[in-house]
Amino acid sequence: MASKKQRAVRPLDAALTRLQALAMRAVQPHRMAREVDMIVAEWRAAAADDPDAVRERLGELHEMLAAGVADAEEQVSYVDAEEPAAAKQAQATLAALVATLGAVQRAAHAPEAAAA
Questions:
Q1: Could you give the CA distance from residue 105 to residue 20 in angstroms, rounded to a whole number?
Q2: How many angstroms separate the CA atoms of 56 and 58, rounded?
């Protein structure tokens, strides 16, 4: 019987999973930003000798989140104003994504030593 090797989860994929889980729970935007700070600190600690890897991950995460913000903005525009609960949920999701994107932008421009 051949045993299956489990693939290592890419740090970026693990981060996206963490952020998605929080977004699904509709946490506050500042909580999403704090999670990004924790993820980036973990990445920097794990790759202390390779800051380029962290910068690359941050760039990829930024691209994905920027696309997510654009999609969320579009979705907000489609929400029926007659459905206040749906409108509130869409706005909350957008706010969380914007806060998350902002945290990634701050982390990308912060010196590595300050976040470690």
A1: 18
A2: 5
What SS3 state is found at 59? helix
The domain spans of the chain are 11-115
pLDDT at 24: 83
Q: Which two tokens stand for residue 3?
A: 């045993």
pTM, two decimals, is 0.84
Banded model confidence at residue 3, pLDDT cuts 50, 70, 90:
low
Residue 98 in tokens: 């914007």
> Token pair for residue 94?
């957008």
Distance of CA 72 to the CA centre of its chain: 14
Helices 11-24 and 84-109, packing angle to 10 deg: 150
pLDDT band at 114 (very low <50, low <70, confident <90, very high): very low
Alpha carbon distance 114, 79 (integer Å): 41
Judge contact between 92 and 46, C-beta under 8 A. Answer: no
Question: pLDDT tens-digit profile of 13-25?
Answer: 999 999 999 988 8
Report the C-alpha gap between 54 and 49 in whole angstroms. 10
